[in-house]
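Hello forum,

I keep getting stuck at the same step: I have a sequence, I want structure tokens, and every attempt I make locally crashes halfway through. Rather than fight my setup again tonight, could one of you with a working pipeline run this one for me? It's a single chain of 859 residues.
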Amino acid sequence: MLHLTPVFDIQRDVFPSLLAKEKTVTRSKDCALVADTRILNVERDEGVIYSWKGATGTTRIGKYDPNTKQNKLLYTFDKQVCISSCSLNKEETLLAVSLSQSTQEGEERFKPASKCLTLVIEIHPINNTKVLKAVDFRVKVQFLYPDVSRCTVLESHLLVAAEDGYVDQYHILLGKQEGYKVIMQNPERLVRDRVAEEFCWVQWDSDHQRLFYLTSREKYMLKCAQFFPDRNFETLFELLLELPSNALTSVRFVNFGHDHYQEQKNMGLKLEVFTDKTGIMCVCYSHSLLSTKDLTYTIAFVHKGFSKTFTVALEQTAVLARMPNLQPLFIHLGYYTVVYLAGHFFHLINCRQQDLLCHSLFLSGNDAHVNALGEKSVFVSVSGRRHLDPLTGRIYNCKLSHDFMIQLLSSGKPEAQRLAALHCVLVYLEPDQDLEKKVIDWLSENVMSFDAFDQIQEFILASLYRICYQQSLSLDIVLPYSSVFEKKMLPVALTAIPGVKCTPELLAQPVIKGKARNLQGYWQELQWVIERTKYFEAVSNPRFRCSQIKSDWTKLQEAMNSDKKKSSNYLRHLEENTKKVLTIVDTWCLDKRVVPLFQEEDLQQKALLGLIVDKLREHLNRHLPKLGKKKIDMLVVNYVAKQLELVRCMLESMWLKLKLSPTVLCLKQRGSSEDWTMFHFMCRILEATKGLCLPLPPGYSTLLTVLGMRCLPYQIFLQYVDHGFLQLTETFVSRLLTDLDNSDKNEELKFGVLKRLPEHLNQKVCQLWDHPVSSAYISREYVSTLLEKYNKTKVLLQLDGGKMFFQPNFLPLTYLTSILTDMEEQALNPFEEQENVDASFVEETALKQTLSKLGFEVK
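Reply #2:
Ran it on my machine without issues. Output:
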């Protein structure tokens, strides 16, 4: 489930180098020369600070540079000491070290006058040592790296966090002597600022140079101090948290490296804060273990304004009875937060979409096992969203497993798990072509819609959501991301998770303060997200739903069928919207298209395209006017164009999988099993898009109808047409009339199709059929057209004594022929672009019809 890639291993990257150095010093080949190698800290530049005990009774501190893959010795203590905290400044001129007495058996105790001794050591070159603290409680040290791109400066800033509840910032001025020695100036009078006091919990954020701390004077208040490159800091954030009165029994330090000599004891709840550049802030904490039957943890979604408390039923209660201090691991992955308890559960909590539980993934049993994480694993967040496991000496990149997610989709898991896995693949994992192909393969193998959700609808909406919210985070709250909200009643399978109880609660309103110049980057985005959340709480239906335009679509269809449609300015406006979308679609992957989608004149689909563009544009202009009309117009057009492209991708993937060729367009042959599979898949796409009132690419209706013609019995095919499932397009009917011969069976089919066509389409395609009935229709239409245009004032009737004079042959036909001959000399033939219909042809046809009506035998 969780793929841990080791980017640093102390045994692989450090131990061989240390062993070589010790062998050089002692001239011995004994591997025991290097002992007790331990990672102490990881700085913002991803340099790893570590220590080891040498053969000569020394304790050494070194640094591993991940860029050069080189190890550097920083400092050597001439005795074995216990290093509980360590940090190196950016210029590698100062080393801050906190030493403590060991309380573990077998450790040689370092015995200063106090339990903890905090030093600042000059190491470039080795000169003076400054004692900062000599106290009886733990102290953590951390140099600031306010701007990793800055050139070397002669000033360093050090945070010192003490267990008695305060954090100070020391400003250490440096000077150069003899051109190369870097020494502290006025080490006895170091300037310091008080950053925090009376805290019971503190967490360091190395990537963004932030200090989160928790105070508990009356109620628990979470605060955050932001450090800036100009040596200043400011408390920008405050949040009131409802925690138990005895939540923390002793001070906790989070992400200040790892203290290998600290006694492992129950220090109350475990709390961590996670942030993301998109404006996410989650406060995660576990609750005291009240029984061995269940475990409770809470995630406060600060950016959403509420928290959720999850109570999880546990199966292996014997483990908890044996290890009562066992607490879950919290691992931040950006869009998701992992909550993991080895041997019990693996929860993947969606941090952005918290409306329904089914968009988070809840696993237990064998599915919840992570190989690299055991019951006693301790994870420390380090720079670059990496995680340190100090017990193994490894630093990992944590990613979700693509293969495991696909496996969840393909297995017979509960539908809520499959929906969550599908969203994780489509939204978080940002699928490449191979992963997207696997998802489409899964869609094609599960063409029947699930009871709880429609997987094709989820594929379309989730993919569109990912593409658009990455372009503009503001779209996160106003665009649809799942089709389950279109259901009138949500299935129980999506609203309840077996073994997990969820209790939501409102959060107190956070306070983001500070000068305007300081609200940049993350803080500006968080404030914007919170403001948007408050706005949308007061607005009904802030998220666009495609089904909401169904009534507008019905009205538009009625307008298109009315006589006034040609004069409608609104229809012309929609046509302009459609042109913008199709212009983009026509430029995508023209050389790679394999599915024969005809660029036909599908007025219904084009009108629907224009309508969706219009309604979505209107929705965004109403809720996000700050984006500007030009950007909104571009976003909307790209959104609809990408939806058409997703449908085309599904078609092409299935087409290639079935190894179909353009021969499927031949109507003379019956369809194969592959044709039937493709037809079934396209029917499911049609059903899914109709349910959401989404348009289809031009030519989709023709291809579907051709496949239906090849695969279905004729009578069933006509029933599909009558029920509106298959559409008789001009392209399809033209192929039908020209490709099929006039056998009795084909004639019956052609008659059935022609009588179902609207009048205007009948006139276009009827002349393509070489058949007496078609010829008769052409003749009637030709005569009707000419007579309508005939100017009766030019008709010259020869009268004899007030009676009409006729030639002695068949009088009605002679009169008709005379009129047509006269008109042919004056008017253009309306069928001249297709076929020449002359008077003699009409005469012959009319004569046969007249004789037939009179009861004579026609030869």
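The chain is about 35% helix and 25% strand. If your local run keeps crashing, start a new thread with the error log.
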